[in-house]
Write a sequence for this structure.
């Protein structure tokens, strides 16, 4: 587990805000926006993020055994090695019924062995009578279909397993 | 009665609703975000559905995801808890359109009472006393300004769509009115998507007293007495108690009667709360109606012996209220303290983290409503309230001693975790709180005495 700590004297930064906006919540909202910008600069999604208002403290914690990463607000961010992907999955964007094909009897959007590219539609989740397209968020080779046609899924349910990158390369 | 209820909430209230459902033989479905996988209600409920990622907007506030989860799991009704979608008329309507019972008032009633100016209008016609101010949202800054001048300062500018202590601004003199008005309009637009504001007199040393009501679909309505919620910080309640100390019983009785009249006037169904300000002269003024179960509802449960969530569910299922006004006989004194993971030394900044140690108090007449447990990681994504500590006693001095004992027993520790328990004990020990003469200014007074006046101004 590695941990980076960012501290800054936030008084000047936020003094005007607390007066103009709705007190503490506005401060937190602004802190959160800063954190979103900060997260855009770190290479991997952290396991844990702690935000504290007042004297601003942002703690970022990554869930791997790599070197400690310290990101200093004013300085250039250190670039840690991205962790090796454990197995990649395309997951459901919401709760609903998953369909592999555009309509009953039609061939599925993708089958095992197919290559997918980012943005390619791989299925449909029907929620509240809406047909929500499921799109691949990365490229890969479909190793296994994990959810059956017509199966009830929830947010994050694994729909397809992608083969590891070394098998899809080339 | 329902066979299965979906609980559209998280934290302690989700667990609290699930517990009553289990006592009633109703199966439960918990919904949760990715951040709440380890939440206590997820393992407690009969089923759980992950409805979205951590931001509430994409999970607990996603109407389609919540309703779809209810339909997928075969739930017949949805309990919204407090916060999130609990006072969203659109959510109540979508539930109804999909054949789900929303455990709360009809969407039309939520919409009417959610608009603070509409609520003031209907309650004024039902005979409830209002603070001097506007009955309608004010069209222009100059119109608002001249009304404020008529009322006399200080005044408070409030967002028509506001609530939960958000979107209001106190103005002490005419010179600061223009700027405060502009800012409140901007905040109202940003927070609620509705820029309308209204103006009323501000009572700096008022007490905040509310009346719990309960209504069925058959025209029966009762009130369950009052709660004093004067101990607030930035309009967020910290301590609630009943009975309101030092308030004449006939005044409380009158507030109860007008609340029932107001509830009948709008066709209210379910549990609701009428909020009032009580001035130093003993006059009371209607503020707003909360159309949901409230955080502090157990205070009323302890003195009446009623399970309010059970009553909500029964009424939603169409049952008649099993009690008349004369059956409601509050006994003794109940106090609730909200324990937040916040650091009072750092201006109450949120201080969540993993709870290495979590040992709630026990002993006679102590109730703790919490979703915390040892090892639980309090997510930073949501509200900072971790537990509610409640005590009951035959009289107020005993209740205060019991609460102090309970708070002192509460062990919560973990890296970076801070709580408000020690601060709450200082509030309870304050001279004016002990005397029961405190107003909504008490938290500022405690902070002043601790750190000097500069701390309270923050």
């Amino acid at each position: 587990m590695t941990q980076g700590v960012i501290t800054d004297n936030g008084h000047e930064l936020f003094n005007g805000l607390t007066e103009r906006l709705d007190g503490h919540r506005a401060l937190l909202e602004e802190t959160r926006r800063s954190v979103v910008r900060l997260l855009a600069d770190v290479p991997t999604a952290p396991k844990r993020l702690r935000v504290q208002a007042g004297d601003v403290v942002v703690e970022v914690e990554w869930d791997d055994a790599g070197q400690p990463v310290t990101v200093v607000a004013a300085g250039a961010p250190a670039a840690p090695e991205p962790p090796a992907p454990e197995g990649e999955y395309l997951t459901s964007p919401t709760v609903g019924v998953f369909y592999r094909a555009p309509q009953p009897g039609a061939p599925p959007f993708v089958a095992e062995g197919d290559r997918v590219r980012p943005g390619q539609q791989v299925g449909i989740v029907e929620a509240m009578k809406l047909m929500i397209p499921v799109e691949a968020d990365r490229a890969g080779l479909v190793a296994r279909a994990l959810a059956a046609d017509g199966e009830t899924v929830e947010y994050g349910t694994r729909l397809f397993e992608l083969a590891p990158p070394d098998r899809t390369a080339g | 009665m329902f066979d299965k209820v979906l609980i559209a909430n998280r934290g302690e209230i989700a667990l609290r609703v699930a517990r009553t459902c289990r006592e009633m033989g109703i199966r439960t479905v918990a919904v949760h975000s990715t951040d709440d996988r380890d939440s206590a209600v997820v393992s407690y409920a009969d089923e759980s559905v992950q409805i979205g990622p951590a931001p509430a907007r994409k999970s607990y506030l996603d109407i389609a995801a919540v309703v779809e989860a209810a339909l997928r799991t075969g739930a017949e009704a949805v309990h919204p808890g407090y916060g999130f979608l609990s006072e969203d008329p659109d959510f109540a309507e979508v539930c109804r359109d999909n054949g789900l019972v929303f455990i709360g008032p009809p969407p039309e009633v939520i919409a009417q009472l959610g608009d603070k100016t509409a609520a003031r209008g209907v309650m004024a016609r039902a005979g409830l006393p209002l603070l001097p101010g506007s009955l309608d949202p004010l069209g222009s800054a100059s119109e608002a300004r001249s009304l404020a001048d008529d009322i006399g300062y200080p005044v408070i500018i409030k967002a028509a769509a506001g609530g939960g202590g958000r979107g209001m601004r106190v103005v002490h003199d005419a010179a600061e009115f223009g700027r405060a008005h502009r800012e409140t309009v901007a905040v109202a637009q940003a927070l609620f998507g509705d820029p309308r504001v209204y103006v009323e007199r501000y009572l700096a040393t008022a007490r905040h007293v509310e009346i719990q009501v309960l209504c069925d679909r058959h025209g029966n309505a009762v009130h369950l007495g009052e709660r004093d919620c004067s101990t607030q910080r930035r309009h967020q309640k910290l301590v609630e108690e009943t009975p309101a100390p030092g308030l004449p019983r006939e005044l409380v009785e009158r507030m109860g009667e007008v609340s029932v009249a107001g509830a009948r006037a709008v066709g209210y169904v379910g549990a609701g709360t009428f909020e009032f300000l009580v001035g130093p002269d003993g006059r009371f003024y209607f503020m707003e109606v909360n159309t949901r179960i409230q955080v502090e509802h157990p205070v009323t449960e302890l003195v009446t012996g009623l399970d309010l969530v059970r009553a909500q569910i029964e009424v939603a299922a169409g049952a008649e209220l099993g009690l008349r006004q004369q059956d409601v006989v509050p006994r003794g004194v109940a106090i609730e303290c909200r324990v937040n993971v916040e650091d009072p030394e750092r201006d109450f900044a949120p201080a969540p983290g993993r709870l290495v140690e979590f040992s709630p108090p026990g002993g006679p007449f102590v109730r703790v409503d919490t979703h915390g447990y040892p090892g639980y990681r309090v997510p930073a994504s949501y509200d900072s309230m971790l537990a509610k500590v409640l005590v009951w006693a035959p009289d107020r001095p005993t209740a205060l001693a019991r609460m102090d004992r309970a708070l002192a027993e509460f062990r919560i520790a973990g890296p970076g975790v801070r709580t408000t328990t020690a601060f709450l004990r200082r509030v309870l020990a304050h001279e004016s709180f002990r005397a029961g003469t405190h107003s909504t200014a008490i938290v500022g007074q405690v902070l002043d005495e601790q750190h000097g006046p500069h701390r309270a101004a923050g």
User: Anything to note?
Assistant: The longest helix of chain B spans residues 249-266. Chain B has three domains: 4-103, 132-201, 207-456.
